[in-house]
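Lab manual, section 2.4: Encoding a predicted structure.

Procedure: take the sequence of the chain (322 residues), apply the prediction step described in section 2.3, and record the output as structure tokens. A sample record is shown.
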Amino acid sequence: MTAEAAHAGAEATAASKESELLSRDLAMQATAVKYDLDVKTDRMRSTRQLVRLFFHLLKLVEIDLFVEAGAKDAASSRRARRLLGDVRVVAFEANPYTYQKFEGDNHRTGIEYLNLAATDTPGPVTFNVLRDDDGLPRSDGQSSILKRNRGRDTERGFEEVTVEGVRLDDFFAGQTFERAAVWMDVEGACKFVLGGASDLLSKTAVLIIEVEDRSYWGDDHWLRERVVSHLYDAGLVPVARDFEYEHQYNIVFVRASLMRSHPRLRLALTRFTSLAYGARGIQPPSPSPQPQPQVLSSRRMPEVVRRSRARIKGWLRAQDRA
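Recorded output:
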């Protein structure tokens, strides 16, 4: 094959990929018809339904490893433990203040809750913890390896802490598992987490990830298009999304080979796009009531007759006078 032919083939492949991802993106956007995006409760409902879909898919494909990156309180890991039973569950939380807050509760559930930053380079990394109104480090899920560069939260500044970083591929190297599920909410740091997880992604059946359409975290912030492209190259295709915020939302990915061979999985995705999925009593509009003809009751009949006779008599008297 000549260099020109190889170049032309690469361009055709890239164009085909771009076309497929655009089609999938438009199809996912179309599911907004189920929600009123001007209403916050409807947007939050879209998120609850997407999470419900994610966990339903995990049960269908029978995973044996659940990984949560950016775990915060590890609520998703605890849900996985309840729903999936005897499955290994590992949750990574880099913020040491958040980790200290939830460590005890999570260890009692049998979850491997770890104060490690999932990244692409092993060793110590700087983690930027947002401050609260009193200037104290926040123990929530809003901080990141990156420094947020817009929003009121940034006005209070950051506390820089050193955390041990680990590549997910290194952490799970040599460990036996067939199919993994990944929950990723890492506040803009997808570039680093995904960069250290190629082997894990090759065994991932279902993944949910928070993405952004607008840059909040500087030059190293991968926006939705870059994240989706990277996961597509790893064999994962986007199948559903929510509408949590205008420029920030979550997308569910499924391994392409499972999409072709798993009819129950395809059925679950079809139902997700229908109004029947989690509908809030959606009913067709009731027809307008038609006016009914008035029927005189037997009790009113004599009174009507009396008045009619009185009008007739009055008319006859007027004729006599004339």
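Check your result against the sample. The longest helix spans residues 3-30.
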